Amino acid sequence: MVRHRVSSLDSRGPDASAGSVLPTGDRPSQVLPTSSMGVFDHDVRTNAVYCSPEVHAIYGWPAGLVATLERFDQHTHPDDRAQRTDAVARAHDYEGDGRYSLAYRIIRSDGEIRWVNARAQTFFEGSGPARSPVRVIGAITDVTDTRAAAALLQDREDRLRRAETLARMGHFTLDSDGAEAVWSDGNKVLFGFGAESNPSFDEFFDRLHPDDAPRLRAAFARAAEDGTGFEIEFRVVRPAGGEATIHSLIECTRHPLTSRVRFFGTNLDVTAQRGAEAALLMNEERLRQAVRLGRLGIFDHDHVAATVFWSPEQRQIWGLGPGGDVPFESTFLTVHPDERDRVHQAMVRSHDPRGDGSYELEHRIVAADGSVKWIHARAQTYFEGAGADRRPIRTVGATADVTERKKVEIDLRVKDNALASWVSGMLIVGLDRKIAYANPAWLRMHGFADEAEIIGKRPFDFIVDPVQHARIRDSLYSIGSWMGEVVSRRSDGSTFDAELSVNSVTAADGTHVAFLGSIQDITERRRAEAQVRRSEAILRSVFEASKDAIVVTKDQRALFANRATAEMYGFDSAADVEGQPLASLVPTAELPRVLAINQAREEGRPAPSSYETKGLRRDGTEFDAEISASTYTINDLVYPLVVIRDVSARKAAERALRESAERLSKVFNSTSDAQILHRVEDDGRLFVVSANEAYRTVRALSFPGAPTNLEGRYRDELLVEQGMSPEQIEMEMPAFRQVIATRQPVSHEIEIPLPGGDVAFVESHLEPVLDPDGRCTHVLWVGRNITERRRSEEAIRQLNVELERRVVDRTAQLEAANHELEAFAYSVSHDLRAPARAVDSYAGILAEDYGTRLDAEGLRLCGVVRSEARRMGRLIDDLLMFSRLGRMSMQTVAVDMTSLAAEVFDELSSAQGRTRITFRLGTLPTAEGDRALLRQVWVNLLANALKFSAKKPVAVIDVSGRVNGDEVVYTVSDNGAGFDMAYKSKLFGVFQRLHTDYEFSGTGVGLAIVQRIVHRHGGRVWAEAEIDRGAVFSFALPAPGMVQ
Amino acid sequence: MSPLDNLSILLVEDNPRDAELTLRAFRKHNLANSVSVAHDGVEALDILFDPDGAERPRVILLDLKLPKLDGLEVLRRLKSDDRTRSIPVVVVTSSNQDPDIKTAYELGANSYVVKPVDFESFMKTMSELGFYWLMVNQVSA
């Protein structure tokens, strides 16, 4: 057996060595500082025990207390005593290796229970059965903290592992027919795919454990049918060969538009959970082992002898074999290069005679096999001498391999960071229903700064609705999980919407360990959802309410269509349109182009966004269509979307407009009237669209200086250029406004001032031009220069006035002349009568008184004188009558011509005393006229008839009359002398005689008088005769009622 | 003088020929016991309104066309004066114009006679006139 120089040391130096086994000098005064590691030395033969002060410290003994085995026993926790005794006994067994390592509880002097780890080596003497222990040297470490730390570590590890386990969650959404599947990256990882990969649904399914796949399929099928969710656990075989157990929570919804069932699933990889137990146990064991073994290496450095002693464990830590000295220098070289400075400094400090010689450091080393390890080293350097002579003589220390712990710590830190940086708030609630842990995200979410503020609080304090507390509780205890939306409360009392998922965490044997809550602030999501819903609602209503046909297509087929589409294409409903191939909606001639455009859109290639084509209705008729095309992208799939507008009416209107425009244009420019087409602007201004040649010409002639560009300017501008004042420009505006308002044309005459002061008269005609809606959008102004016409009119008017005046004058003159004439005639005839009478009378007196003295000749001469005088008298009377007739006022009455004629005839014939007359008087139509004058007519005509027929044996006189249309005709015929028709024209002339006085006396005025009277009545007179056979005199008068 | 004695006629006639003819007619039938002739209207009025001894003829034969004072004017005066109103006035004139006839009657003429142009008719008319107005017609005292 190798003797190792290992000593227990007295911390206070040589003087404190009372009761120690070895003399002071032999006892290295190496003290481990007030860390929890103490060293003891048990001399079996003397049964003395020497302890370092640390041991005292560990046990809570006062410094001077002598340590005894009994004391050690006493202070061992009763539960552990037996165990310890056994271990000690084993260590002392001569057949064993003398090793002793035990962790047990002690009860300190102050009653506190601590965990210690004691490790010792028994040294034997002799061999065989005589082999007996002589010395036991060991170290005790207070591992309460370590243990606690280990426990905490474990706890944290658990938590972390669970969190990590639960972090290994995946989500997916899936349509019941597998058409649409969305996998979260986490899910992909769960199934062993890379997060970046894009596996298909079948690939996912292929990973299922063959035993579990049917079960899963059945569950999905059932859920698809009745739309209920389910929970299921199944295994997944990863390609790497690993198998994972997935716990899946599936929920179902029905798609609002298509009524398809959609699954929302959350997958939990519970593999680790299942294996956590085992791992846990393993770790515990490992830890226990680590503790048991201590992995404590002990080293002893003698500065004086310049030797170093390393315990086997130490060598083990460094990865060195058991044998061989350890060169001092090389130990330093094993320090990890990054740590060398730190370590060197600590070592130098501990060797400084001025210091207390303590050393404690955790650092990395590079073991012989090249592996990097973490060690926790404690050492104490002892000095000799005083003052300037003080120098280190010995350094004793212990090293623990803390690589594992460190790894875990690091892992912990890393994972803690991972957990900390996770966006979702995580809360762990223990069995006591109080919060055990909250991650930084949860703290942030709820407005807390420090975990400490909420540890131990009740989680339901942060959920507002008490009803939900009950529900959540019930759900957790029945199925162990709950998922839903809650209203969460922050530290300041404000609330927010959140999505909460609570799962129970169970150990491998199914016992419930804790609850894990995962919470997400869904305020934003809610807002976005509401917005999406709103915009969806808006979009949907727009989609349906639109009068334009909207169609979403895919693969050249109509996928969605709105009601307007159905109406436009003549289908009964939008559903009938959906599914139709585009080929059935587009006429053959247009199909290639439309399909090409649609294809380009679907593939994301450039395509026209609007174009004109034709649509094919269900009944086979075509219509002009205007298409606006775009795309609609969902889940990276591109759906071409088209808006179709039936523009047939517009096209027809355009065509008609074009035709009429052409017609108008021809007329417009060929007419000689000046025309301007105005467009009516919204503010009422008149915009000149076009002006014809005639206008241009006139404008150029009349206003030579005015600009010649007319189109595109306003009417008032043009008129200003013609020198019109604002009042003059405004003059025609009421007419324009009237035309626009009433949509009826207006004509009027206007005056246009010309340069130089002249005025042109223009007849202007305003014609409204209506748009298809019946609004007056344009007004056509047509102007005709009527200045000349006006002048002529004016001249004519003047002329007329002049003529009137002249007529009036002339009439007055005539009247005056008439009056004069009358007065003259009257006066003359009146004054001529007396002398005529005198001549006749005196000749008569002569004949009477002196007749006897006259011979026959003398008497004859007297007679001649007398007859001439009498003739003169008759002439005078006739002249008087004739002259009176012209101006005499007529009194028009109905005249009974029959009785009048009879009366006149009686008068005449009786006056003449003739008897041989045959007088035939027919019934004469009534005449309308002046009775006295008409009487005169009968007098003259009948007197003539009597006179000229006097020579016949029997005078036959016929008077008849008849109505002849609008005339009444009277006829007087006699069988007298008649007259020569050759002289008919002279018949009615004044003083015209067709017979000599010798034949028939007469003045020649009689018929003139008849004609004058008949003419005054508006009638006419004529005669026919034959010499010696008689004459027929007729006169016609306007029939009664026709007289004007 | 008794009314029966008064057989005078006042003839107001400016034409001496017509006057002579008229007188001849009266004389032929013994009607002209006393015929006074005034040659114009003024003279006639003088005779009728003479303050020293106005005559009151049985009938006045009044021509219309008179110099100085017109016959119609004489008529008016005669018929508006109490002294002469009731003396019958016979208008004897060449005019057969209705205005003259109308006016004469309106002014109160008792008769209107147109002088015929020929001798025989003239003589006959005058004598008939005379006979009627002197013999047939009655006057007040």
Characterization of this structure:
The complex is a heterodimer of chains A (1044) and B (141). Chain A has 1044 residues and is an alpha+beta fold. Chain A is built from 28 helices and 37 strands. In chain A, strands 2-1-5-4-3 form a 5-stranded antiparallel sheet, sandwiched between helices. In chain A, strands 7-6-10-9-8 form a 5-stranded antiparallel sheet. In chain A, a hairpin with a 5-residue loop joins strand 8 and strand 9. A 5-stranded parallel sheet of chain B has the order 2-1-3-4-5. Chain B is globular, with a radius of gyration of 14 Å. The longest helix of chain B has 18 residues, at 119-136. Chain B has 141 residues and is of the alpha/beta class. In chain B, helix 1 packs across helix 6. The termini of chain B are close together. Chains A and B meet through helix 24 and helix 25 of A and helix 1 and helix 6 of B.
How is the secondary structure organized here?
The complex is a heterodimer of chains A (1044) and B (141).
Chain A: E1 37-43, E2 48-51, H1 53-59, H2 69-75, H3 78-92, E3 99-107, E4 113-125, E5 132-142, H4 144-167, E6 169-175, E7 181-183, H5 185-190, H6 201-206, H7 213-226, E8 230-237, E9 243-254, E10 261-269, H8 271-293, E11 296-302, E12 307-310, H9 312-318, H10 328-334, H11 340-351, E13 358-366, E14 372-384, E15 391-401, H12 403-421, E16 425-429, E17 435-438, H13 440-446, H14 466-478, E18 481-489, E19 495-506, E20 512-521, H15 523-545, E21 549-554, E22 557-561, H16 563-569, H17 574-577, H18 591-602, E23 610-616, E24 622-634, E25 637-646, H19 648-670, E26 674-680, E27 686-691, H20 693-702, H21 715-721, H22 726-731, H23 733-742, E28 746-753, E29 759-770, E30 776-785, H24 787-850, H25 856-887, E31 892-895, H26 897-912, E32 917-921, E33 927-930, H27 931-948, E34 955-964, E35 967-974, H28 1006-1016, E36 1020-1026, E37 1030-1038
Parallel strand pairs in A: 32-34
Antiparallel strand pairs in A: 1-2, 1-5, 3-4, 4-5, 6-7, 6-10, 8-9, 9-10, 11-12, 11-15, 13-14, 14-15, 16-17, 16-20, 18-19, 19-20, 21-22, 21-25, 23-24, 24-25, 26-27, 26-30, 28-29, 29-30, 31-33, 34-35, 35-37, 36-37
Helix pairs in contact in A: 4-8, 4-12, 24-25, 25-28, 26-27, 27-28
Chain B: E1 8-12, H1 16-28, E2 34-38, H2 41-49, E3 59-62, H3 71-80, H4 82-85, E4 89-93, H5 98-107, E5 111-114, H6 119-136
Parallel strand pairs in B: 1-2, 1-3, 3-4, 4-5
Helix pairs in contact in B: 1-6, 2-3, 3-5
